[in-house]
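Ticket #4471: structure export looks truncated?
Reporter: QA, pipeline team
Priority: medium

Steps to reproduce: submit the single chain below to the structure queue and open the exported record.
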Amino acid sequence: MKKTIFKGAGVALVTPMNSNGSVNYEELEKLINFQVDNGTDAIITCGTTGESATLSEEEHEKVIEFTIKKVNGRVPVIAGTGGNNTEAVLKKSLHAEKFGADGLLIVTPYYNKTSQRGLIEHYNFIANNVSTPVILYNVPSRTGVNIKPETYLELSKHENICAVKEANGDISSVAKTISLCGDNLAVYSGNDDQIVPILSLGGIGVISVFSNICPKECHNLIKSFLNGDTKISAKMQIKYLELMNAMFCDVNPIPVKEALNMMGFNCGKCRMPLYELSEENRYKVKSTLKKYGLI
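Actual output as written to the record:
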């Protein structure tokens, strides 16, 4: 198998904001320490949950650099550097590499809606020009582009493409991908409600929204499975399913940032065009957090 960046629970970390909309670095450090202190296995910064789409180029670089510095080697840091402009993705990836990122999480190009051949060329171009391991990120519900299992097979042949965060929601497709690629492509669940199903097919972890609020529980869920305690892991998946689903009662990361605020963190609001929770969904998040003893 190629180099494994991490096994277990990686958190797709939120980016906290001040009341004026700027990045709150003091709170970001608190969130980083909360994650590391509670057993998270990797920190993913500037991904979808980190609102990368509304960070400026300068902010994107600074958040990655700050996160790597504050983690200080305690766990791997994976930088989200994807986009729909191949040259710009390479530039961001090289910046993250310079700062010392352990991996690059690169979402499929969105809006352009490239072909499967275009995906192969795009990812191979990036992987050819960086030395940091690349994790593909497939989330067609947000990008309008889906990586097919046969495309994964071609991409898995590149020595620097090591894994995928799979959030297409299609377990049959995941099974086919793992069957085709074997040890040449590690699979992380990109959906919290499918952690155990993907682990059961040979996946090695998750890149998680849920882990923002329950890092220890997410870590233990996967650790139990990897240690052979599959029944315990399955029970934990079912136990926390309602809480996981509550974090998607509105567009991610709106609910999870509100949940963290309710738990005593100061994460602020999401940047526009994302808007705050409705009263109905705020009640849903609050009541669910209470049910699980988080507030």
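Status: closed, not a bug. The export was complete when the record was re-opened. Leaving a note from the reviewer for reference: The chain is about 45% helix and 15% strand.
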